[in-house]
Amino acid sequence: MKDPHVRALAWLLDSPDLLDAQAPQWQGKVATLFGHHGEAADAWLTELDADPSALHAILDSHPFARLGRYAEQLMAFFFRRLGVLYAHGVQVGTDQTVGEFDFLLWHTDSAGARTLLHWEFATKFYLFEANQAQRQSGGDAEYLVGPNLADTLGAKMRKILVRQLSLSEHPAAQAHLPQAIDAAQALIKGWLFYRHDDFPSPATLGVSTDHCRGFWMTLDEAASLRGECFLILPRLSWLAPACAQPDACLNQEQLRAALDMHFAVDAAAVMVATLDTAGETGMALESERTFIVPNDWRGRAAAGISVK
């Protein structure tokens, strides 16, 4: 796929689920796109890539600044195409917002009955840090920490399972529902990042065995990155593996200068893609991705101090 938005949508549909739906800690409340995507969707994506104007029009009409909202718009576009979308982004509450339904979807069960599903949707990026001191009751999922140390996978999933998926039970939600919710589940996509020498068992984390993964290192360690073609990915480009013209790439010296300049004024982690330029398409394609974090990141993680 050449269009960046179609590439992002294709990744959302094709990428492995982040979580293992069978892991007991998720209580059977993890959704999957398995069964929604197939050869027909592949053909549709190819046609959309050739003429992405319809997708661009939707994205242009719903301005977004956050990656989560961008991913939601892409998924809403797909669900509309399937004809299963009842509503998207429904806020519940009048004077005070109680919550929001990410997706209300129609589903036809094996008996032919039309049921209504509530899906919460999130795209998450976590770094595995076994020294993370703010471990709570979420098991080893607490060791998967957000790049800016604002949350963990365990904390995020507790919020979704305990609060967000119970939204349909609130009296204020009834006015937004054409019928009772048959099932409430969470669809979670994303990437996990590890140290090169630190790979835990996916089963202990509750994540799928084939989840998308990369690496993380500190700024001082970034000199060890191997390759000749790099891109610093803005947040809205974090979903799909990067694709770029080779002349858009940074070499090692340029990358180091860009990282030094960034961390001189900003402590936010940086996503760096390493690209391979040896393919037959003439485009540079991502072969690996790495989060670069401030040199004091591990100390902040141990102390539970967020990166501002």
Tally of DSSP β-strands: 10
The succession of helices and strands, N to C, reads HHHHEEEEHEHEEEHEEH
What is the beta-strand fraction? 25-35%
Low-confidence stretches: 134-138
| Multimeric organization | single chain
Helical element count?
A: 8
Q: How widely separated are the two ends?
A: 35 Å
Largest sheet: 10 strands, mixed
Share in helix: 25-40%
Q: What general outline do the C-alpha atoms trace?
A: globular
Query: What's the pLDDT, averaged over the residues?
Result: 91
Given helix and strand content, the structural type is alpha/beta
- What is the gyration radius calculated from CA atoms? 20 Å
**Domain module count:** 1
What order do the helices and strands come in, and which of them pair?
Layout: H1 4-14, H2 39-50, H3 53-61, H4 67-82, E1 85-92, E2 99-108, E3 114-128, E4 144-145, H5 153-162, E5 181-194, H6 202-205, E6 212-218, E7 230-233, E8 243-244, H7 252-265, E9 270-276, E10 284-293, H8 297-303
Parallel strand pairs: 3-5, 5-6, 6-10
Antiparallel strand pairs: 1-2, 2-3, 3-4, 7-9, 8-10, 9-10
